[in-house]
Structures are given as C-alpha cells and as structure tokens.
Amino acid sequence: MHIKDAQIYREIISSAEEHFSARANPANVVKYARYFKDGYDAWGVDAKAIKDFAKEISETHKSLSPQQIIDLGLLLFTRGKYEMGSLAINLSEIRLKDFDKETFKELKRWFDFGVGNWAHADYLCSKILPYFLQKELVHYQEFEPWLRSSSKWTRRAVPVSLIKIKKEHEPESLLTFISPLMTDPERVVHQGTGWFLRELWKVHPKVVEDFLYKYRNTAARLIIQYATEKLSKEERIRFRRDTR
C-alpha cells in the first residue's frame, strides 16, 4: 500500500467514524440486533444516511481506482462496525461500472477477511457479484476458489450469487458446480445453498428434485428443508434420510 493511499484511507475512515457516531441511534441497534445471531456491532445509523455519505465520499474522491476501493473497503470492514461495511458496499455499488475481472477476484478478499454477517453478504451477492456474471466479465466457474475458502461467508456467496443467473445455464452444470457445498459444515452455507436450490427448482423442478434425492442421506437437513419448502408435506417425504 502506497503511503499516499494509506493517508487517504485513514482520512476517509476517520471521517466516516465521526460522521456515523454523531448520528448514532441506540434504538435502531436494539431493533435490528435480533436479526443477527452472531452479534450486531453498530451505531444504528439509517441505511439512507449511509448511502448519502457514500455519495459524498465518492464525489470528494472521484479519482479512487477500483483497486483502491477494494483496499479501502477491506479496511472499512475490518473496523467491525456494521455501518463501515455498509459504506464499503455502497462505494462499490456507486463505482460498479468501473469494475472488471480483476476487481471480481479482489472482492473475494472482502468475503475472506471482512464480511461477517448475512446482510452484507447477501447484498453483495444480489447487487454486486451478479454484475460480473450478467455482463459476462467472468464465468460462474471462476467462483471455484470461493468454494474452497476457509470463510463460511465466501462459500455462501457462491450459491446466493448464482440465483441471478439460474435461467442462463444448464441446471445440471450449476448443480454439479455447487455440489461440494451439500456437505458443508456451516449453517449459513446450508441456508444459502438451500435458497439457491429452491429458486432453481422453480425453473427446473425435476432436475433439482433428482439432485436432492441423490443427496438425501448426506446433505445437511437444513439444505433439504430450504430447497423443498414449496413442496407439499407428502412430496417432501421422498427426501427423508433412509434409516434402514
């Protein structure tokens, strides 16, 4: 990291902490904490106020390159406060059209070392990461290193991001790709994988049901539960574990 870059990052981070702490709302912290089982360290600043501040930062620092936004974003995430991670995400969304394949690779660092809750993870997976897929800057198979990450949020990002392109690829290929997650040990990965399978089922029900049947004895039950949520009680019996 260049000395000049480090100085800019420190100024932005200091400004953000001062801005958000001055707008702290403890009532919002209490209100939203129940949705975050792993903890919710926040000032309680409204989402609009965060977005407005991101616009100010982006306007003041127009020369920030995609790489600088990634580096700054990681520093924001590692501060720990919810609003700082949200600021990183808002800055990336403002500059999304400037991002390229290399930026996609760098975003993995956010998940590996920064993202720590479902809200940040799923916003990135619904608004930022699909951009690279839909603009054909990357192929979904370039998520392969993400599947092997030690971070549960990085692994979760794969199926959740693929929801946006569920109609654009052969379902068998998508299912083969996410199959390593069927036996993942982490609950948040189970939820993300089950969510993807449920959405893919809406488009290719038979293919997904055949896939789930193959994994009925080995997959996490939460994956099966999420994936078969739209099936009737009688239909879900097929996917119970064989206890014989």
Molecular structure report:
With 244 residues, the chain is mostly helical. The protein has 2 domains: 98 residues, no CATH class; 127 residues, Leucine-rich Repeat Variant. Helix content is 65%, strand content 0%. The chain contains 14 helices and no strands. Helix 3 packs across helix 5, helix 5 runs parallel beside helix 7 and helix 11 packs antiparallel against helix 12. The chain is globular, with a radius of gyration of 20 Å. The chain starts with a helix and ends in an 8-residue tail after the last helix. The mean pLDDT is 96.
Count of domain modules: 2
Number of helices: 14
What structural class should be given to the helix and strand makeup? mainly alpha
Average pLDDT score? 96
- Tell how many strands the DSSP assignment holds: 0
- Distance between the ends: 59 Å
Write the layout of secondary structure elements.
Blueprint: H1 3-21, H2 26-33, H3 47-60, H4 66-78, H5 82-94, H6 101-113, H7 118-134, H8 144-147, H9 152-162, H10 171-178, H11 187-203, H12 205-214, H13 221-227, H14 233-236
Top keywords for this entry?
2 domains; Leucine-rich Repeat Variant; mainly alpha; about 240 residues; 14 helices
Could you give a quick summary of the protein structure above?
The protein is mainly α and 244 residues long. The protein has helices spanning 3-21, 26-33, 47-60, 66-78, 82-94, 101-113, 118-134, 144-147, 152-162, 171-178, 187-203, 205-214, 221-227, 233-236. The radius of gyration is 20 Å and the shape is globular.
